[in-house]
Design goal:
Length: 163
């Protein structure tokens, strides 16, 4: 009775040998990519000795015929701690979520909340009316409205397919 390997086996085209390690390596890479998707990795230790995390706020970008809208989730971040710039068709949002940790000695068993600085930069697909850009912050969600330039609206054209 022969034992069957649970690992996928592929044939090497040059010499017909089995390449189980390449396939296994690819599968392990995919497992770690899937597992870590959406997580920030810990950075260096902060001055208090606790782990400091680099935040990466979630972003939604939507478009209609008149504008581009960028929405970011920034729970626990105060409006005064957010800076928005637009230069060379790149929208950059920087900020900081400040820690509320007291200096009392506590025994933490689990810490998942993140504190620290963040930055997201988004290259815009076209020119916008920079003097009409607006931002609104409500309940931890920042929404930035970027009206399309008049030139872009004029250039946009629907092309009918002929049969």
């Amino acid at each position: 009775m022969s034992a069957r390997s649970p690992l996928p086996v592929s044939k090497d085209q040059d010499n017909g040998s089995r390449d189980i390690f390449g396939s296994l390596h690819d599968r392990i890479d995919r497992v770690f990519e899937d597992f870590t998707r959406g997580f920030s990795l810990p950075s260096t230790l902060s001055h208090s000795g606790s782990r400091a995390f680099g935040m990466a706020p979630r972003v939604d970008v939507s478009e209609d015929e008149n504008k581009l809208t960028v929405s970011l989730e920034l729970p626990g971040v105060e409006e005064k701690d957010v800076n928005i710039t637009l230069a060379d068709n790149v929208l950059t949002i920087k900020g900081e979520k400040k820690s509320e940790i007291e200096e009392k000695k506590k025994d933490y068993h689990l810490v998942e909340r993140e504190y620290g600085r963040f930055q997201r930069s988004i290259r815009l697909p076209y020119e916008v009316e920079t003097d009409q850009v607006s931002a609104h912050y409500d309940k931890g969600v920042l929404e930035i409205s970027l009206p399309k330039s008049e030139d872009i609206k004029k250039k946009a054209k629907t092309i009918k397919i002929q049969t």
